[in-house]
Amino acid sequence: MKPLTREQLEHCDRSAVWHAFTQMAEYEPLIIERAAGNTLYDLDGRALIDGVSSLWCNVHGHGHPRIDAAIREQLDKIAHCTSLGMSNPTTIKLAQGLVEISPAGLEHVFFAGDGAAAVEVALKIALQYWQQRPDPRPHKSKYVALGGAYHGDTIGAVSLGDIGQFHAMFRPLLFDVLRLPAPESYRLPPGVTRETAAAHYLAEMESLLAEHHDQIAAVVVEPLVQGAAGITMQPPGYLRGVRELTQCYNVLLIADEVATGFGRTGTMFACQQEDVAPDILCLGKGLTGGYLAMSATLATTEIFEAFLGPYEQSKTLYHGHTYGGNPLAAAAALATLEVFEEEQTLAHLPEKIARLEEHLVRIAKLPHVGDARHRGLMCGIELVHDRDTKAPYDWKERRGMAACRVAIEHGVFLRPLGNVIVIMPPLSISLDELDQIMLAAEAGIVAATAP
């Protein structure tokens, strides 16, 4: 194929490429030609700090020499082999590495291609487990999900989801779930304070489990932070309480750490902050450092053993992906884990988190910032029409998008969630780069909320 001119690239980007979550009738091409460290470069050579980690997945920066070298080395061995009935050393090592760093008891790893697939297989594992365990509970086939949930865009994941703008259209395709209100800390129910919020939401959870536990296969949660809901923060102690309730009522806990895993909240996994070990853990995004598509679903030995038996019993997990366990992706993921250790990535986060907090204290005082919240380096700044009533802007006004367009003029790429400005840089971000991100976000907010 002949090289394309800039005009041809932009034309094809509008006409041939169908961009995710993008209104193509209004799309203006932003074409990134290369990247280095924490910076993206467009066709004009304009530098943009990657303020959202290329959709929350880049961990150690772009073009990290350790990860680049691991992929090149793997290329000289094998680029892909199926995981159906065979394996390869790199993927085996990765599985063992994930078992070693994950919450206790998660000893078996199923590889897939993306976060939604990790959730899909978790749903299937949970359902099949209750059918096949030594004392089967065939009626346990329902799932509990939270308001504002987002677990991906496949049918099972969308069934768990609760973002109307994303999911309402597909209602005829979805299965029903038992839904609880979002356990957030900003827009609280009447009479509930931040100090009493965890107890309030846990009482709702217990009431539901007490009534329906004999029908429930699993509770599915995003630990600590609900990402696409607007980077909403669960009250301290909520996750721990949910774990205790699921154990009390004999219900599985599925923790979706696709977004929160690999250091985003300040620890390797968000579950670790409340000493929670789920029955099933879903991982993706940062698993390969943001290099290649890969996800993983980890389960306990008790669950795994329910799938073992003679072939004719059909206890096999009948689920699989062509590229599940791909050696190139596994090589990138192994190198990502090694960089965490070699560069002591987590040990360097407190200083960066403290700098982020300094900026948020200032930004929170802006007249149309209702809430400036974060957990680790996952940050959401919510724009509101009225601070006192917390009345939101109409989403059709696109205030968040307007703020992010201004941020680009200040050399920072951000992507909002409605009226929430999301800031989620690579963990490798420097303090100076973090300053630039926050100042650009502030400039964008001031401009987008001006009278």
Can you walk through the features of this model?
By secondary structure, this protein is of the alpha/beta class. It folds into two domains: 31-59 and 346-448, Aspartate Aminotransferase, domain 1 (Alpha-Beta Complex), CATH 3.90.1150.10; 68-342, Aspartate Aminotransferase, domain 2 (3-Layer(aba) Sandwich), CATH 3.40.640.10. 35% of the residues lie in helices and 17% in strands. It contains 14 helices and 17 strands. It has helices at 6-15, 53-56, 65-75, 89-101, 115-132, 155-160, 164-167, 197-212, 238-248, 301-305, 327-342, 349-363, 399-409, 431-448; strands at 32-36, 39-42, 47-50, 106-112, 142-146, 178-180, 216-221, 225-226, 232-233, 252-256, 280-283, 295-300, 369-375, 378-386, 391-392, 412-413, 420-423. It has a seven-stranded mixed β-sheet with strand order 4-12-11-10-7-5-6, with helices on both faces. A four-stranded mixed β-sheet has the order 1-2-3-16. Strands 13, 14, 15 and 17 form a four-stranded antiparallel β-sheet that branches. Helix 13 (399-409) packs across helix 14. The longest helix has 18 residues, at 115-132. The chain is globular and about 65 Å long. The termini are far apart. The mean pLDDT is 97.
